[in-house]
Amino acid sequence: MTFENLNIIAPITQALKQKGYVEPTPIQEKAIPHLLKGSDVFGTAQTGTGKTAAFAIPILQKLYAGQADRKTSGIRALVLAPTRELAIQISESFSDYSKGLRLRHTVVYGGVSQNPQTTILKKGIDILIATPGRLIDLMNQGFIRLDTIEFFILDEADRMLDMGFAPDIKRIIAKLPARKQTGFFTATIPQEIRALADSLLHNPVMIHVAPNSAPAESVNQSVYYVEKADKRAMLQQVFESEEIETALIFTRTKHGADKVTRELNKIGISAVAIHGNKSQMARQKALQGFKNRTIKVLVATDIASRGIDVDKLTHVINFELPEVPETYVHRIGRTGRAGESGTAISFCASEERGSLKDINKLLPRAIEVKRMNGFVASSHTALDMVAAERPERPSFHGRPARPSNSGQRPFQRKRW
Ligand code: AMP
Fold it and tell me: What is the pLDDT of residues 265-286, one digit of tens each?
């Protein structure tokens, strides 16, 4: 399957080639034809599946085709995203795919001055990407009207409700014209999402791409048993033994993220923490530095990491395991994207074994246990415990899932 097979017009296929996209991802293959035809789409897919292009390409193509006979000068497409980072990334994708189309788009989000945003809005745009809060602010001040919208995309709808945006979304939807085409994307379908979709979509085409196994397949996963006090030393060891171009390190707390960042900086690794206590400017600067490779490592909490999307992220390191097992899959889905292979390394202390057990239950096969010279878990029986916690069942290769290492070395603590 090629983009040409999906009847994508030449200027867009050329832009996609420039981005290095060879063929459509499954969600693109499934969603693009329906969106081009004019149907509403309800898509269950996560970030990392290529869903941005799945809605951006048909919007661009349809707006481009309708440019000549347009009657109004208002905004024609609205994309709502839950976070500033995601909104910015979506906007960058529109820039990438729309080269040569002469369609204007912009992105508005909170936490920064609104003046540069309103200056662009006043000049007139075709496509608006927005976070709900700032959109409502600008609507209330009369900078934005939604009565000319032809295409509406609600991205990461479940996350939006989770972040408390339900009232804002309802207010925004109420201002949209009844006649429009809608794309609704969500990773999960809790009851309130179903209700919102029902109220918004007309005879939608349902599209599903496997959320869980997709990122994990291309990611080489391993776990080290290491006690809490030794994690920072082990992290240094990992950086010495692995070829790490870019890494996203997850910690459970903001304080933990700051600590790990300081330690990495001390040993000469360019790292920046990205979390809720950082200003919007600092977050954007960190993301930019990461993208242009002046920063090698981002250290993030789960909430702050939402929307971080970097091409060719080589490593995800779980300095601490998440309590919710699905979060592990989200985290490691940041690497190994769109056919690239990636590496996910997790550290598991004694008190995190319950979390590891839950994560392993969710995966088609248990994460491979590795051992680093000089480090062992404090309990002699730790590995046996974990093996016992996970009932043996055939893995994908027909072998029982088992930790792969054996033997123990005397305990030896290293310090940075
Ligand atoms: P998304 O799920 O939209 O956040 O996209 C995930 C990543 O996949 C982004 O870095 C995109 O640039 C990339 N991507 C999207 N579509 C394709 C494709 N057809 N081929 C290769 N990479 C893609």
Answer: 999 999 999 876 677 677 778 8
